Amino acid sequence: METLFIVGSSYLLPSHKAWINLKTSYAETKFYEYGDFISAIEDTPPDAPLALVIFFQDLFPVYAIDSRSIESAVDSLIELLQRRLHDASAETLICYADQDIQSPISSARTTPSRTVAYERFREAVDQIVQTSSTAYKLDLGSIFAKIGEDLVYDTRNWYLAHSRLSSEGIAKLVETIQEVCTRIKMPAKKILVLDCDNTLWGGVVGEDGLSGIKLGQDGIGQAFVDFQRAVKQFAAQGTLLAVCSKNNEADVMSVFEQHHAMVLKKEDIVAWKVNWDPKSDNIQQIAQELDLGLDSFVFWDDNPLERDLVREGLPKVEVPELPRSVTEWPTYFRRQTHFSKFATTSEDKTKLEQYRSRAKFVSELKSSDNRISYLKSIGLKPEIQRIGSSNIGRAAQLCAKTNQFNLRTVRHTEKQLEDLSKANPELNFLVSLADNYGNHGIIGLVCSKPLDGKYLFLDTFLMSCRVLGRHLESWMLYQLTTRAKIHGYDYLVGQHIPSERNQMVAQFLQQHAFTESDLMTDKLKVTEEAKALISTAPVLYFDLHQNDVPNLDIFEPDSSPLNP
Amino acid sequence: MQEIEIENKIKAIIGEHLNMQPQEISADSGSENVDGWDSVKSLSIVLDVEKAFNIRFELDEFEDLTSYKTIFKTVCTHLGR
What we know:
The structure holds two protein chains of two kinds. Chain A has 22 helices and 15 strands. Chain A is an alpha/beta fold. In chain A, helix 2 links the parallel strand 3 (50-55) and strand 4 (92-97). The relative contact order of chain B is 0.20. Chain A binds chain B through residues 13-17, 156-157, 159-161, 167, and chain B through 16-17, 40-41, 43-44, 47-48, 50-51, 56, 58-59, 62.
């Protein structure tokens, strides 16, 4: 883990114990002298993360409230930021707030010039964040407003130590940074498992009947509707939904099919487990059927006992403690960060359909006798795509989210991918797939970099689990070997870095004629980069002149212009 | 709150910040004779003490709050003892 560098426009109480909470994301924190943005920008290495905490009032002397001097202070800070973002590969967090102490009267008829200046500052930050792939903005103003500015700011601490914030303020700042950093490091959860009775509606459908449950009526019935709306909103952005309820299936289905106030419909749900089995067993089955890791699950149930049982049985599943009153659920759910993402890609929106077609493929493959002839019949059509501005977001997303079929689990940022692709445009590529089950979109990524003129290192080789079972991984490797030969390489160098989730590919290289060779490893150690790579895990070699990856004839030819 | 409780709470906070066992802290312990007890540590100790007792020190009290004894006394004053 790395060091997070931090600079504040005023003192941030570095020894305050709240900062320790960042330890889950960063090994340590290092503070620059407050106000020293220049050192922070110039001395923080581009591959080290940096957080800037800007209190707008610190940017200019109190007496300089004319708009000209405010603007020039803002401009020079923005210029500094741009310098950092120009070549930073690690994240830059721009946190800002303004403690605006003006009477409501002064802004009742006109907007004070200072407010205008702050708005301009925020717009400028928005703009640089949009044009950079490694910058994140944290608008502390709206976050502080939630718990109250009077609590967050402390003028005594200002006169005491030049700290704008109170202890509570520091804690909230750290919490906010922590939330965003967690998402930078860890993918969002993918699936929400919902209970039914007293969760999606009030009452017990088995006892109260379709007309007796509380849903849609004024009062609490409306709260359940609002909770369903909040859930549906997340589903529209790509969160999968499953139902896990101890009930008679027919009763639950009757609500989904017939109740006029149901916001969630049958087709919104990707997996159903309506039975009397333990919920932890049911969740485990959903994970297997959909090829999802248990750590991508969130379980939502009004019953504290069920929550505890799932926590105990499946510690990887996230089980939020819920407010007792359902009236608080809609807001509470929206504030959960488990599913929130920095951006929603078009892939996210079509996810439900993809998981459904995955389930269909698995069941049909199981029931056919001859695997290969079956695969031949489904019209597999893979395509190579060069990494460019239109798909680099997806490439970074694949790096961030692919855990199982991923040889080295390198979480490349867009910037890093761009650099790799620029250096060797033909040896770094994305793979998309279409077949009779639908268009699966971009589901594979191959990144490689030369260690010297002969050796090509397989930096990233990953594939989305939703297209497993089609031998597409062999096709991808075949494509890479073909290109590598054309570029004059003799060997592919590969390695498997074991993670908690990627056992599936532990033997992938061996299965494709990669072999161990101490002799080669010794030869390779001449370059520093190679040494660093080799030290992380054993490396295997694929002799491009001696070996071949079988080109299975189950695929339709790739007609994309990039195919050599 | 008993005086001993106040004492234990304060010593626990000081100990946590300076990596010391509470029993290593005596009445005379302070920034003059404890390694690492500098003004930065002082500030974070005192802010934690405020939180632990739900009290708030005035700006001019901070200057003296650099030893166990003065912290204890000032806390007692604030708690109305």
